Amino acid sequence: MRGGDALFFQEYKLMYGMLFSIRSFVSKMSPLDMKEGFLAFQTSKYKLHYYETPTGIKVVMNTDLGVGNIRDVLHQIYSNVNLTILHRPLPPPNNTTAPKGLLDSQQPSLPRHPTPVPPPRSSSSSLPPAGSAMAVNCMLRQLH
Amino acid sequence: MAIFSVYVVNKAGGLIYQLDHYAPRTEAEKTFSFPLELALRPHDERALVAFGQRDGIRVGHAVLAINGVDVNGKYTADGKEVLEYLNNPANYPVSIRFGRPRLSSNEKLMLASMFHSLFAIGSQLSPELGSSGIEMLETDTFKLHCFQTLTGIKFVVLADPRQAGIDSLLRKIYEIYSDFALKNPFYSLEMPIRCELFDQNLKLALEVAEKAGSFGPGS
């Protein structure tokens, strides 16, 4: 039951908790040393694909059962988002850079560039800025 | 191409049967001199490698044996603590065997219950209505297949990712369960399965599945 189910509003929390438990479960159950770890799971109706970067960013995609390995797609989504958000040449809208004088007097050797926006967390269902959303849409269309 | 293990979980999430059919052991034995270049840390009743990955010894590996004698959890066969023994320079040079720690039966029980819950959450997270629980979980080293019967019993098989025919193997295990456990007059429902015929037939079925690569109908 999706509609009135209270759990649905907290879906992302449930998903994070589940993925964290699955990762710990898999690392204990595995008969051999793992390199990539948990990749995907499927039920009778959907398949959940998972990709985690070494920095802890998790990219999750729920697809139809017919989809195979889309790890490279998830990696592309991550790198596009990373590129369009983190590597922006313009400072972030709420301008969290330190005031000019402060940096000058304390550490003159530090290169002055805007503090990076913290990377977006969890699933691809969160809303990325317009540029990366277009890129994600293009990639998803390619999958069909 | 191998089938690693079989777990049977009852309606309440408790483990009622477990079989390790094939355990690939990645172990490394090396001789060391004082001081030890790895950092060992006690964890879960064992001494685990925390830092210093080299030569096949990875982080997370446990101390399995010292000088050829198997250790007993955190203690050597003589009853001394492994970490204290290895801190004493008088005991060197020493030959230590490291490897992935084997799961104790307690840990298997906990993992089975954990999977029981994950199975249920899998059906709740579904974007479509009417989804079952997790039927297959994939990692780079193994694939976990699960079949839940109408009565709530779960048959879980861990196999090599390339192993085929596990679906029919799961149905076959269900058949063996109903023939040799349920029809056994001394077996009580939802209790641990201690039926010799069930063990024997299950092992036979696993061997057939491994050899054939897939399970034929009517076997």
UniProtKB/TrEMBL annotation, chain A:
As for subcellular location, the record says: Endoplasmic reticulum; Golgi apparatus, cis-Golgi network
**What SMART domains does the record point to?**
Sybindin (SM01399)
Against Pfam families, the record matches this protein to: Sybindin (PF04099)
Q: Where is this region: Disordered?
A: 88-131
* Main localisation: endoplasmic reticulum
* Keyword presence, Lipid biosynthesis: no
What is one term from the GO cellular component aspect held by the record? Golgi apparatus
Keywords linked to the UniProt accession: Endoplasmic reticulum, ER-Golgi transport, Golgi apparatus, Transport
InterPro entries per UniProt: Longin-like_dom_sf (IPR011012), TRAPPC (IPR007233)
GO annotation terms (biological process): endoplasmic reticulum to Golgi vesicle-mediated transport
> Gene3D superfamilies per the record?
3.30.450.70
Sequence ranges of Pro residues compositional bias: 111-121
**What superkingdom does the record give?**
Eukaryota
Q: Does the keyword Transport apply?
A: yes
Family, according to the entry, reads as follows: Belongs to the TRAPP small subunits family. BET5 subfamily.
Q: How does it assemble?
A: Part of the multisubunit transport protein particle (TRAPP) complex.
In Swiss-Prot or TrEMBL terms, this protein is called Trafficking protein particle complex subunit
Origin organism is Sphenodon punctatus
Automatic annotation (TrEMBL), chain B:
Main localisation: endoplasmic reticulum
Q: Keywords on this record?
A: Cell membrane, Endoplasmic reticulum, ER-Golgi transport, Golgi apparatus, Membrane, Postsynaptic cell membrane, Synapse, Transport
* Signal sequence region: none
In its UniProt record, which GO terms are filed under biological process? autophagy; dendrite development; endoplasmic reticulum to Golgi vesicle-mediated transport
Gene3D superfamilies registered for this protein in UniProt: 3.30.450.70
Location of the protein in the cell: Endoplasmic reticulum; Golgi apparatus, cis-Golgi network; Golgi apparatus membrane; Postsynaptic cell membrane
Q: Name the protein family.
A: Belongs to the TRAPP small subunits family. TRAPPC4 subfamily.
Name of this protein: Trafficking protein particle complex subunit
**Where does this protein come from, organism-wise?**
Sphenodon punctatus (Tuatara)
Q: Which gene encodes it?
A: TRAPPC4
